[in-house]
Amino acid sequence: MFHKNDDPRDGAYMVIDGEADLLLPQEGADPRLIATVGSGALVGELGLIRGEPRALDMRAKSELTCLRISEEDFMAVVENDAATAFRLLQVVAGYVNT
User: Fold this and answer.
1) pLDDT tens, 46-94?
2) Residues with Cβ < 8 Å from 14, sequence gap 6 or more?
3) What is the reported pTM?
4) Which of 51, 52, 3, 50 is nearest to 24 (CA)?
5) Sign of the Cα pseudo-torsion (31, 65, 18, 76, in order)
6) Measuring CA to CA, which of 6, 45, 46, 63 is 20 to 30 A from 53?
7) Neighbours of 50 (CB within 10 A)
């Protein structure tokens, strides 16, 4: 789906069906599995929020259906829907605690 250091402005991805691995590439070794995500997961939102390149690779683990949410649409939802913005803050706070 995407690679580490890709431009995050491609958007965020909502996993509709299937599973994907989030991997940290390692020089001279196999990538390290960070997480496996499935239906309902939102991936790539942190890069959009921070405006920084992707931190991980996202690779399909099975047949995968995703909804790509453009940067513009993602930011419009965050700016105009307080409940969604709050849920995103909760997700980001979870990243900080792990």
Assistant:
1) 888 888 999 999 999 999 999 999 999 888 888 887 777 777 777 666 6
2) 40, 41, 42, 43, 66, 67, 69
3) 0.81
4) 3
5) positive
6) 63
7) 11
